[in-house]
Amino acid sequence: MRVRSVPLILSLFVAVIALTVSARSFAALQGSDVPAWLKAHVGDGEGQIAQVVLERARALYLKKIGEGAVKNPCYFAMDATRPGDLGNGVLGRRYYVICEASRSFRAVSAGHGGGRNLKGVVDFANGRRCAKNFGNAMDSELTAGGAYVTGETKTSFKGYYRTGAKQDAVFLRAFVQFDGEGEAANARQRAIGGHVAEVLRGMCLRKNPNSPYANHDGFVPAGRLVNYAAGRSNGCTSWSPADAEQIIPMMKDSPTTLYIYPESRDIAAVAKTVASGGSPSGTGPYWNASCLKEIGAPKFWPGKTLEPIIARYKKDHPAAPPRPVPICTEP
Q1: Which residues contact 215 (CB under 8 A, 6 or more apart)?
Q2: Is residue 252 classed as helix, strand or coil in its secondary structure?
Q3: Any idea which of 63-67, 116-120, 275-279 has the lowest mean pLDDT?
């Protein structure tokens, strides 16, 4: 039986790197401008990072390094204004892994918050390709931009999935908790973090009394493993399986920073520019041009506005009683 989990060797490798990067290296980093090799990755093209996103991500990292809050040689950034799905099975690269000590820059895909459509009340849902709605409200399933520091990593058992004829694998999913600041300060309460973009669907109970995860009747949950890297998330940051296997070990036991763009101030500036007939370009507020054309104008939903609406909707539309999980038809 195969267990799906984060490779231990990557965790050890990252830990060794973190220990070997000296305090002198970090001091030199703090006193420097953006190095030329990193500037080469700045731009609006695919796989590049917008200048404002890099500047803020780097400033946050250097601030936390100076405070002694992080010692990780790498930091992260995400540009949620970029498209997530480019079509034909190609995912947009908008999550950035930056390791200045080793002169490493990677751009990978990541999901954005899907939001919700409270039918008959308010619609703040996002499409698969571009995000129009952002916010920090509880139960909103929206992405909140801003400053984060990665916290503890928790691995939990989700169930079994079939890999062949009567062959099952255990699905263990690691979740990296994020701790936010400012408008993102409720990240822990919202259970906002990072994890692989995989989930088990069509759950049933399969007899497996020898499993350490079996219940008192000898059954274990089982389902179909679904990869939703091309879709949306519940507000968390989700990565493809291949990227998650590299990114999560970099965060485990070694806190670092993540800056997610845009913040509410950026959304307000872009919306104001669009309303006045202008275009966010040049020295104006930044937004990915293709997504802005698609969404018209972005919107930020603050918790104090949206949470009462969501609470009333839940009260008026109580959830149906949970149904018992059926027994699997396959042995």
Answers
A1: none
A2: coil
A3: 275-279
